[in-house]
Design a protein that fits this description.
The complex is a heterodimer of chains A (376) and B (256).
Chain A: E1 16-20, H1 21-31, E2 36-39, H2 46-58, E3 63-65, H3 69-81, E4 86-90, H4 92-108, E5 112-118, H5 134-139, E6 150-151, H6 156-173, E7 176-182, H7 183-187, E8 189-193, E9 218-219, H8 226-246, E10 250-253, E11 260-263, H9 266-281, E12 286-291, E13 293-295, H10 299-307, E14 311-316, H11 322-330, E15 336-340, H12 349-364
Chain B: H1 32-45, E1 52-56, H2 64-67, E2 71-74, H3 80-90, E3 95-101, H4 102-108, H5 110-118, E4 124-129, E5 132-133, E6 139-140, H6 159-162, H7 168-173, E7 178-185, H8 189-207, E8 212-218, H9 222-225, H10 229-243, E9 247-251
Parallel strand pairs in B: 1-2, 1-3, 3-4, 4-8, 7-8
Antiparallel strand pairs in B: 5-6, 7-9
The chains are: A alpha/beta (376), B alpha/beta (256).
């Protein structure tokens, strides 16, 4: 069952409704002023496209089901190059196809929001929830030296709120922005407090609209002269540095006095929360560090939290991807363990509690602060 | 027009206002410059300069934005029709033009051009077919003629080994979303004159909201073909135009 029959006029900011993640993200984008949507069917994000297919025409806004993810993302590139607020969504294999245009958009500084409702890979993989696209989202999708902000909601309500924030970031920094969700967030229904916000639009001064009364503009990523391209890259790097300095987001729970800290985002953070409650009932002092921006990664904040802890446990729906950034953040000063499942499997709270116990035992056998490596 | 005529004189030929006054990067004898000029003339004559958003391809013509004085978006290789679709959908008042070569349109971008045409997008597509990958050094293209030598078909294109040339414009023309499809040539002045008429009509078709319009222009690549400019023009006229025949391929605006 889906919520597709809910009349949108009954959806009001602040109301609490039972809603499916994919549909909630779609409606949040519409209320955030999304001017155009382009997509291609893929599980587990198809309801997002279906919601847009019904709602965008109701709003008098363009919706195109493209011939492929290549088609969809390049339609988005064209629409966004005119200054339109554009959303594209897909799931893992589709995101791989979109990687080319992501690189072009990063190079040409075209804002856009792209939702990845991650499923298990590699290859065609499966359709269960996964976080195996962390590397893809945070370390680059296409070619070239670039980064894009990656926002990771861990509830449907947070996904709605981050949609407006994503458009705002995209336009403020003229960059594509990822919302990295997973199959659980896309497919689950949960009671959600509706969060709608339409960010203000800034006069852009760069987009194409027809050279009426001004010099022609070109939106492009090509700089054939090495000197020019290096200057362009320096400009991009300065922008990435500014984003890194200003846009880091994370949330902490039970970190006061915590000597075991789970680092997890998205659905993995939900599992971690349950595990932490059980572990604390057993007397383990466990807390949660939840990155909300995966790039920029909250390295400094994590290092600070880690300095007060005996050990960190990274929990992911992957074979271990974010854990590399966790290790980089603590630079070997705090033991880092990992617990994860792949292929659409989700670690159970029991498995995470077991991992916390192992970490506790391993770290209390040695003096706190000793450098050691803990692996499962 | 930009030239001021002395008293008693009359200007009969001049640079169109939308053709930027700079030398191009194109090789001597290349046909792209002629096609650029025709586009600048037609856009100017139809008064479209201030509302045109054009899409540049990957290939020799990527720098079209340096020479034609309208707003441009640079597309990834082959994706110009998808990029143009996005522009069209959010900018209904814009005039949207794509410019692609044969590697871009007939190889890597086949899905995008076929589906844009299939949707009947209100776009004007200019397809410059010189039968070779010019920018990367003269490799075989989908449109390379049988027997034609290239750096990746050094013994000449063989059907059994390389497959047959793809007649893109005829393929597109069978779809109902395509309102107008024609093939011009830059081989000589009469052919260039007819090509301009095709381009003008393809622009009008978009303005009239009739559907997708495409003009293929068969052109020469002296360097890629290993010929002098004059030899390449002779080959274009005597060999290429016999295989890719110029003329109007479909005009659904005149049906029923």
């Amino acid at each position: 069952m889906t919520t597709a029959t809910i009349p949108p006029a009954t959806l009001h900011h602040g109301h609490r409704v039972l809603m499916k993640g994919n549909e909630a993200m779609a409606e949040a984008a519409i209320r955030a002023g999304c001017d155009a949507y382009f997509g291609y069917p893929i599980t587990p994000q198809a309801e997002l496209l279906e919601w847009m297919a019904r709602r965008m025409p109701e709003e008098g806004r363009p919706f195109v089901q493209a011939e492929s993810e290549l088609g969809a993302i390049n339609m988005a590139l064209g629409a966004a190059a005119t200054g339109a607020r554009v959303l594209v969504s897909s799931s893992s294999p589709g995101i791989s196809l979109m990687a080319e245009a992501m690189s072009y958009m990063a190079g040409a500084e075209i804002p856009m929001v792209l939702v990845n409702v991650m499923r298990g890979g590699p290859g065609l993989g499966g359709i269960g929830p996964s976080q195996a696209d962390y590397f893809q989202a945070t370390k680059g999708h296409g070619h070239g030296d670039y980064r894009v902000p990656v926002l990771a909601p861990s509830s449907i309500g947070e996904a709605m709120a981050l949609m407006a924030d994503a458009f705002e970031l995209a336009e403020r920094y003229r960059t594509p922005v990822f919302i990295l969700a997973d199959g659980t967030l896309g497919q689950a229904m949960e009671p959600v407090e509706l969060h709608f916000r339409e960010p203000a639009r800034a006069a852009d001064g760069w987009s194409v609209s027809g050279a009426d009364g001004r010099q022609p503009r070109v939106v492009k990523s090509m700089h054939l002269e090495p000197e020019d391209l290096e200057q362009h890259n320096l400009h991009l790097q300065a922008k990435f540095a500014e984003i890194s300095a200003r846009e880091v987001r994370w949330a902490g729970e039970n970190l006061e006095g915590a000597d075991l800290v789970i680092v997890a985002y998205g659905t993995a953070a939900r599992v971690a929360r349950t595990a932490i409650a059980r572990a604390r009932a057993e007397g383990l002092r466990a807390g949660l560090f939840r990155p909300i921006t995966l790039w920029p990664f909250p390295s400094a904040a994590l290092a600070e939290v880690a300095a007060r802890a005996r050990g960190l446990l990274t929990v992911e729906l992957s074979a271990g991807q974010m854990v590399e950034d966790v290790r980089l953040a603590v630079e070997g000063r705090t033991p880092v363990a990992f617990e994860g499942r792949t292929g659409g499997m989700i670690p159970t709270p029991g498995e995470v509690v077991d991992a916390l116990r192992r970490l506790h035992d391993a770290t209390t056998a040695q003096p706190a602060g000793a450098t050691m490596e803990v692996r499962p | 027009m930009t030239t001021v005529a002395p008293a008693g004189a009359r200007i009969i030929f001049d640079r169109p206002e939308l053709l930027v006054d700079r030398s191009t990067h194109y090789c001597p004898g290349c046909g792209h410059g002629v096609v650029h000029r025709l586009i600048a003339e037609v856009l100017g004559e139809l008064g479209l300069g201030s509302r045109t958003i054009a899409v540049a391809p990957v290939g020799c013509a990527v720098f079209a934005y340096d020479y034609i004085g309208v707003d441009f978006v640079e597309a990834p290789h082959g994706r110009a029709p998808a990029v143009a679709t996005g522009i069209r959908r959010v900018r209904p008042d814009a005039f949207v033009l794509t410019y692609q070569g044969d590697g871009d349109l007939a190889a890597i971008g086949t899905a995008e051009i076929i589906h844009a045409a299939g949707r009947g997008e209100l776009l004007t597509a200019v397809f410059v077919n010189n039968g070779i990958y010019g920018m990367t050094g003269g490799q075989m293209a989908p449109t390379t003629l049988l027997g034609q030598r290239s750096t990746s078909s050094p013994g000449g294109r063989e059907a059994a080994f390389h497959g047959y040339p793809i007649p893109m414009t005829e393929m597109l023309a069978i779809m109902p979303g395509v309102a107008y499809a024609a093939r011009g040539s830059v081989a000589d002045a009469p052919a260039i004159g007819r090509t301009k008429q095709y381009l003008r009509r393809a622009c009008e078709v978009q303005l009239e909201g009739r559907g997708f319009a495409i003009v293929e222009v068969i052109s020469n690549c002296p360097v890629g073909w290993g010929m002098t400019p004059t030899e390449s023009i002779e080959r274009l006229r005597d060999v290429v135009a016999k295989q890719y025949r110029p003329g109007v391929i479909v005009d659904r605006t005149r049906e029923g």
